[in-house]
Amino acid sequence: MDNIDMKQIQWFPGHMAKTCRLITANLKLVDAVAEVVDARIPLSSRNPEMDRLTNGKPRIVLLNKCDLADEKITKKWIEYFSGIGVTAIAVDCKSGRGMKNFIPTVKNKVLKELIQKRERNGMAGAVTRLMIVGIPNVGKSSVINCLAGSKRAKAEDRPGVTRTKQWVKLDNNVELLDMPGVLWPKFDDQSVAVRLAFTGAVSDDVLDIETLAMKLLVFMKENYPQSLTERYKITYDDGEGGYDLLLKIGRKRGMMISGGEVNTERASITVIDEFRSAKLGRITLEIPKEVEKCQE
Ligand code: G4P
User: Fold this and answer.
1) pLDDT in the model for residue 20
2) Which residue of 89, 168, 177, 204 has the fewest CB atoms within a 10 Å radius of its CB?
3) Is there a contact between 26 and 179 (Cβ–Cβ < 8 Å)?
């Protein structure tokens, strides 16, 4: 789906309230809530209201796009969620990795007690229903398609495009309730907006591309220095900041403008594109309990 347009954020109060009301009103129809997040930014790609909205319903978090995320840190996130009583699994829609764990995890872990209770009451064949939610661009439609094995979720779920809720049938008597409406992330936090911009979840006008690239380079230098030096064949010392790195990368790639200066805009686009396509490696921007690491 389209990335989030910052101009649409002006709709936030009314639009968001409507989505929240829909979620609350439909919660009684489901046994659990499946929340899709981006494995590279598991906290920033969540809706801040989700804990409150789900109102104690059992939950499963799908750490999607795990093909782009740092595997070691994805494991830490699974532990983190487990520590707060939420089951999380890593999935990847590109290869389908982890998808086969979804239904067994829901039935044998997230809803274990409910399923056992139903079995005791002679309702072993009852349908298990889950609501699926996620902020734009985390891959909610892709996840539904992957789980359902069809293209049925390829719907227009942009703000302003009316769409009704739909049930999607999966194997083993499981149904997913795909809610219309858009959930926003926590935009009032600038560092969240920056991380969403790194991943391409928000349109690139949230920050100018050079500022974004410089912030990403500083993060890379501090957290994934080897990826940076290997990809761009550059060396640098501790005192060098994002702009110095950008100049070095631009020079190395021959991105010059007349007068011998580096075309920093082109270099920035390259850095951001290469991060998003994982050419810089599998990188996670948020670490459990250390989320401040990649702020600013
Ligand atoms: P949404 O419903 O949550 O808004 O997300 P959607 O499924 O439309 O996915 C948003 C983008 O993320 C798509 O890319 C999609 O291909 C990509 N994506 C979804 N899941 C995964 C995943 O597990 N791994 C990777 N690497 N990418 C994923 P796009 O560029 O918008 O479209 P396209 O590449 O499919 O043409």
Assistant:
1) 86
2) 204
3) yes
Query: pLDDT (tens digit, 9 = 90+) per residue, 105-128?
Result: 999 999 999 999 999 999 998 999
**Number of C-alpha atoms within 13 angstroms, CB side, residue 192?**
15
CA of 31 to the centre of ligand 1 (A): 27
Q: What is the dihedral of CA 87, 90, 93, 97, to 10 degrees?
A: -120
Provide Rg for the chain, Cα atoms: 21
Does the C-beta of 93 come closer than 6 Å to ligand 1? yes
Q: What helix, strand, coil percent values describe the chain, rounded to 5?
A: 45, 15, 40
Place of tokens 């872990």: 109
Q: Which residues of the chain have pLDDT under 50?
A: 10-11, 151, 153-161, 291-296
Q: Given the CA of residue 95, which atom of ligand 1 is nearest to it? A: 23
Nearest ligand 1 atom to the CA of 144 is 7
Collapsing DSSP to helix, strand or coil, 88 comes out as strand
Ligand 1 pocket, residue 65 CB under 6 Å = yes
Domains and CATH numbers, the chain: 14-178 (3.40.50.300), 208-295 (1.10.1580.10)
Nearest atom, ligand 1, residue 93 CA? 23
Beta bridge partners of 168: 176
C-alpha 104, offset from chain centre = 23
Query: What tokens were used for 115?
Result: 């399923």
Model-level pTM?
0.90
